[in-house]
């Protein structure tokens, strides 16, 4: 059967998801703990992901990508995250950058960057967040001044994934700092590393280790004017907002994957561990936890599927993506915590993987829009759609 929204064969997509799951079990599970505890970048894993085509997962086939639907992509992210969430971050920010270029770039920009991005030769990131501007992107201070056929960039960014080992970033800047409203003075630049593009330092993190999250500094960094995304100034905020839905579906899938992985670990351990003469899974207190965990996992998956269907159909899905991200990330946090309780004292030992799920889960509640911000987005959209 062919998916009418993508033109892809659904049997091929299922086979791909199954192959990714086998790869993750065989290649990721044995090394996840080692790389996480050492906070070491997984070079071999990145090479394998190149071969699997993950860096081109959602890039169109015309540019060398796999052209996967958001639904299939979300399934892949969930599978990988149920074993080790961090590698998804290497290709997620990269693919959001690619999606922005594919949606908004000039044809010359697409031809120059998308094939290199699909192969993993060029690995990108999103240069949005600044020390003073997280969810409030209009408050950014990085400025790009036009000088002839270049923009000269000065400013700083923080929490930029892929910035140490990657090759460039989609950089949100102010091309007109005096513009009112503020968003009309914002633009996106396709910024390849070069003189003045300074990776100032890798941030040490509670979880989400092995993946480089860095501070960036730009000191008279020159970007060719033809790297202005879409070729028109003042479109950056709208172009950024247009990519949030896919990013939120990805984070939702990561949260659901963490939840599912934590559930699987807890389910197995509860049958192996005995207390008071019987496996702890036979104690009602543990059964109640397992029931709530699996319900949250499956509920999150359904919301992710709904958001992905709308995204793939080209329909507005900011409400659905926000609900999916909220549900998936909160499911991850809930299931990781409950699994820690089921594991008891052993949950604090690095010999058991559950502590990594617990350290990784909270990032999903914060990244791609904090859940507090998303609740306001959901409420506003709900009211707008049901006005009396």
Give an account of the 3D structure.
By secondary structure, this protein is α+β, with helices and mostly antiparallel strands. About 50% of the residues lie in helices and about 15% in strands. The strands form 3 sheets. It has a 4-stranded antiparallel sheet with strand order 2-3-7-6, covered by helices on one side. β8 (about 275) and β9 form a beta hairpin. The relative contact order is 0.11.
Summarize the structure.
With 388 residues, this protein is an alpha+beta fold. The protein has 3 domains: 10-119, Orthogonal Bundle (Butyryl-Coa Dehydrogenase, subunit A, domain 1), CATH 1.10.540; 124-232, Butyryl-CoA Dehydrogenase, subunit A, domain 2; 243-385, Up-down Bundle (Butyryl-CoA Dehydrogenase, subunit A, domain 3).
Give the CATH architecture of the largest domain. Up-down Bundle
Helix content: 40-55%
CATH class of the largest domain: Mainly Alpha
Largest sheet: 4 strands, antiparallel
Q: Provide the residue-averaged pLDDT.
A: 94
CATH superfamily of the largest domain: Butyryl-CoA Dehydrogenase, subunit A, domain 3
Distance between the termini: 42 Å
Stated plainly, the CATH topology of the largest domain is called Butyryl-CoA Dehydrogenase, subunit A, domain 3
Instruction: Return Rg in Å.
Output: 21 Å
Which overall shape is indicated by the principal axes computed on the Cα atoms?
A: globular
- Specify the number of helices: 11
Count of discrete domains: 3
Structural class: alpha+beta
Q: What is the ordering of alpha helices and beta strands?
A: HHHHHEEEEEEEHHEEHHHH
Low-confidence segments: none
Total beta strand runs: 9
Strand content: 5-15%
């Amino acid at each position: 059967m062919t998916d009418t929204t993508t033109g892809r064969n659904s049997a091929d997509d299922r086979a791909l998801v199954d192959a990714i799951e086998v790869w993750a079990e065989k290649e990721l599970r044995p090394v996840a703990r080692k790389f996480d505890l050492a906070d070491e970048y997984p070079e071999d894993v990145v090479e394998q992901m190149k071969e699997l085509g993950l860096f081109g997962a959602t890039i169109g086939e015309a540019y060398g990508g796999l052209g996967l639907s958001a639904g299939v992509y979300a399934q892949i992210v969930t599978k990988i995250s149920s074993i080790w969430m961090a590698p998804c971050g290497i290709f997620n920010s990269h693919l959001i950058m690619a999606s922005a270029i594919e949606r908004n770039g000039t044809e010359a920009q697409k031809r120059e960057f998308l094939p290199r991005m699909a192969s993993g030769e060029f690995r990108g990131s999103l240069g949005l967040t600044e020390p003073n501007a997280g969810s409030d992107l209009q408050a950014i201070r990085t400025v790009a001044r036009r000088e002839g056929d270049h923009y000269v960039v000065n400013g700083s960014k923080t929490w930029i994934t892929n910035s140490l080992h990657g090759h460039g970033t989609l950089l949100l800047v102010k091309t007109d700092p005096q513009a009112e409203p503020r968003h009309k003075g914002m633009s996106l630049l396709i910024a390849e590393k070069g003189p003045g593009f300074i990776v100032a330092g890798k941030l040490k993190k509670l979880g989400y280790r092995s993946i480089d999250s860095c501070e960036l500094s730009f000191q008279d960094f020159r970007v060719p004017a033809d790297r202005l995304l879409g070729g028109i100034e003042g479109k950056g905020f709208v172009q950024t907002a247009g990519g949030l839905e896919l990013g939120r579906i990805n984070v939702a899938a990561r949260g659901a994957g963490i939840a599912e992985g934590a559930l699987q670990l807890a389910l197995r351990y509860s049958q192996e561990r005995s207390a008071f003469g019987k496996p702890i899974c036979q104690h009602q207190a543990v059964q109640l936890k397992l029931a709530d965990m699996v319900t949250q996992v499956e509920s999150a998956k359904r919301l992710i599927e709904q958001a992905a269907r709308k995204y793939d159909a080209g329909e507005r899905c900011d409400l659905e993506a926000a609900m999916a991200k909220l549900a998936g990330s909160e499911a991850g946090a809930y299931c990781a915590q409950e699994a820690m309780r089921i594991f008891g004292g052993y949950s604090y030992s690095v010999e058991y993987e559950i502590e990594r799920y617990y350290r990784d889960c909270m990032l999903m509640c914060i990244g791609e829009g904090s859940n507090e911000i998303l609740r306001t987005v959901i409420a506003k959209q709900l009211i707008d759609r049901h006005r009396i």
